[in-house]
Design goal:
about 190 residues, alpha/beta, two-stranded parallel sheet
């Protein structure tokens, strides 16, 4: 991971909850500079840190925020949505049958053709070859068992899992609010 002294392209701002923790680690909670300026004017956020770049209008000048904190706390204890991305995150972007991280899909443990539902406790991340090999069979019939017990994760668990996948770059003004092992370049 690279820590940038110059702002990243697009001038995104790190968005923190009212408790100064990121709304999300993976993907990292970033807003475009346009969204942040709007939120500042609507008084929904506090500017915590700014870039050295300013935006201008005929009657106004403002430094672009690099870190903002919401004024109202958003509870993080709601159940996570069942999405492909959240499923892959729960399973650490790894096939639950062979451990591959390539060509990922998802697999119904109890096949849909046998009444299996699309839900947290019946879907696992699978690479395409394993998914094809298992086909419409149960894990017992196919001799293929998922590497972990499947269940709906909590938002806290997904946030914790997201910390395992830091982005390729961070701006130096974001580092104090993120909880990865980060080495600053001299």
């Amino acid at each position: 991971m690279q820590v940038l002294k110059r702002p990243p392209s697009g001038w995104p701002a790190l968005v923190l909850n009212a408790d100064f923790r990121p709304l999300s680690y993976y993907p990292l909670s970033l807003w475009s500079w346009q969204e942040v300026i709007k939120a500042v004017f609507l008084e929904r956020v506090e500017v915590v840190s700014s870039y050295d770049v300013k935006v201008h209008s005929p009657s106004f000048e403002m430094r672009l925020p690099s870190v903002v904190a919401l004024k109202s706390y958003i509870a993080q204890d709601r159940p996570p949505a069942f999405t492909r991305f959240n499923l892959f995150l729960r399973d650490a972007f790894t096939c639950q049958y062979c451990g591959s991280q390539a060509d990922l899909t998802f697999d119904h443990i109890l096949p849909r053709s046998r009444g299996g539902r699309t839900s947290w406790d019946n879907i696992v991340t699978a690479c395409a070859p394993c998914n094809l090999r298992k086909g419409g069979r149960t894990p017992k019939e196919a001799g293929m068992h998922p590497g972990r017990h499947v269940r709906r994760p909590t938002m806290y668990e997904l946030q914790d899992l997201g910390r395992r996948f830091p982005p390729n770059f961070l701006h130096e003004s974001w580092v104090d609010y993120l909880y990865w092992d980060i080495e600053l370049e001299a």
